[in-house]
């Protein structure tokens, strides 16, 4: 009986280990250190795009699923933007662009994010590099809004 339990435990462990990395690749990277993200962005000469979300927001999930996760997975966007997610109102620790310690909620409040989803394209110091995209505007044009914001951010970063 102990041997059977050990076999099942091994099988379940393999299943969990095999599914872990796939899940990480299927989503967005949650922000934890914008100072490090800015260094990555600087080396690529690209802006940082942040989606501000909240739990249970189906529009946030739709924007992530239909637009941002595919962008994050597309290798061509690695030369255009660094994409991160921040949860509005969360007390999760976060390192800001200047190296100071804050929380996701405080970061969102400092960036005057009160409605979700909000997508902001930021420069290497955490300043707006394009007009924010607030809400899920017209779905037919949403990808175009994202592209325009990324291009505006790229222009500002590459002129520095």
Question: How would you describe this structure to a colleague?
Answer:
The protein has 160 residues and is α+β, with helices and mostly antiparallel strands. It has a single domain, classed as Glutaredoxin. The protein contains 5 helices and 6 strands, in the order ααβαβββαββα. A 4-stranded mixed β-sheet has the order 2-1-5-6, with helices on both faces. A two-stranded antiparallel sheet has the order 3-4. The longest helix has 25 residues, at 2-26. It is globular. The protein starts with a helix and ends with a helix.
Task: Give the helices and strands, then pairings.
Blueprint: H1 2-26, H2 34-44, E1 48-53, H3 58-73, E2 82-87, E3 93-95, E4 101-103, H4 104-110, E5 118-122, E6 133-134, H5 139-158
Parallel strand pairs: 1-2
Antiparallel strand pairs: 1-5, 3-4, 5-6
Count of folded domains: 1
C-alpha end-to-end distance: 67 Å
Unreliable stretches:
1-24
CATH class: Alpha Beta
CATH topology: Glutaredoxin
Task: Tell how many strands the DSSP assignment holds.
Answer: 6
Summarize the helix and strand pattern as letters. HHEHEEEHEEH
Contiguous helical run count: 5
Q: Describe the main β-sheet briefly.
A: 4 strands, mixed
β-strand amount: 15-25%
For the largest beta sheet, what order do the strands appear in spatially?
A: 2-1-5-6
- The CATH H-level superfamily is Glutaredoxin
CATH architecture label name: 3-Layer(aba) Sandwich
Shape: globular
From the alpha carbons, calculate the radius of gyration and give it in angstroms.
18 Å
Helicity level: 40-55%
Q: Return the average pLDDT rounded to an integer.
A: 87
Structure class: alpha+beta
């Amino acid at each position: 009986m102990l041997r059977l339990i050990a076999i099942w435990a091994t099988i379940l462990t393999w299943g969990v280990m095999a599914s872990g990395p796939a899940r990480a690749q299927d989503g967005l990277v949650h922000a934890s250190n914008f100072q490090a993200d800015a260094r990555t962005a600087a080396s690529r000469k690209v802006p940082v795009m942040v989606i501000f979300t909240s739990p249970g927001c189906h529009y946030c999930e739709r924007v992530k699923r239909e637009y941002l996760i595919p962008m994050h997975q597309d290798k061509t966007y690695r030369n255009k933007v660094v994409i991160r997610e921040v949860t509005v109102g969360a007390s999760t620790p976060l390192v800001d662009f200047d190296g100071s310690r804050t929380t996701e909620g405080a970061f969102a409040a400092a960036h005057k994010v009160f409605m979700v989803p909000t997508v902001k394209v930021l420069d290497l110091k955490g300043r707006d590099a394009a007009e924010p995209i607030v809400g899920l505007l017209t779905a037919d044009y949403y990808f175009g809004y994202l592209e325009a914001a990324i291009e505006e951010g790229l222009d500002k970063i590459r002129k520095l």
